[in-house]
Amino acid sequence: MTVVTDECPEGTVSLALRCGDDVRMSVFEPWGPGDVFRSGLREIVAVRAALDALETELVVEARSRGCKWRELGEDLGLSAHGARKRHLVADPIHAWRSQRDPHA
């Protein structure tokens, strides 16, 4: 993933996140005193959301290829339970099992 921030001539700050062919762009306009800090905070929120989405995509792909929660937990700095709890909704293996067995 590539993160690029630019200050535009009009005083706006733009943020582009590139992950493969997917590009997410945000433009923030200053509001008054402390604009640089407020723009920076809004950029952090945008980057955090993009990183969360990327993390979920990577976990889904890893689980689809047979990675265990223990392995993913280690990579994420979490326990196996913590990784599973964070990403269970998006887990393709859990969804597949739930469709086969309603008691899963």
Model description:
It is a single chain. The protein has 104 residues and is α+β, with helices and mostly antiparallel strands. The chain has one domain (2-100). The protein contains four helices and three strands; from the N terminus they run βββαααα. The protein has helices at 35-64, 69-76, 80-87, 92-100; strands spanning 2-7, 13-19, 22-28. It has a three-stranded antiparallel sheet, covered by helices on one side. A hairpin with a 5-residue loop joins strand 1 and strand 2 (13-19). Helix 2 crosses helix 3 (80-87).
Quick structural gist:
This protein is α+β, with helices and mostly antiparallel strands and 104 residues long. It contains 4 helices and 3 strands.
In the residues, how many domains can be counted? Answer: 1
Beta-strand level of the residues, as a percent range?
A: 15-25%
The mean pLDDT is 77
Rg to the nearest angstrom?
18 Å
- Give the end-to-end Cα distance, rounded to a whole number of Å: 35 Å
- Counting DSSP H or I runs of 4 or more residues, the number of helices is 4
Low-confidence stretches: none
Order of helices and strands: EEEHHHH
Structural class: alpha+beta
Helix content: 40-55%
Outline type: elongated
Question: How many strand elements?
Answer: 3
Order of strands, widest sheet: 1-2-3
Can you summarize the main beta sheet?
3 strands, antiparallel
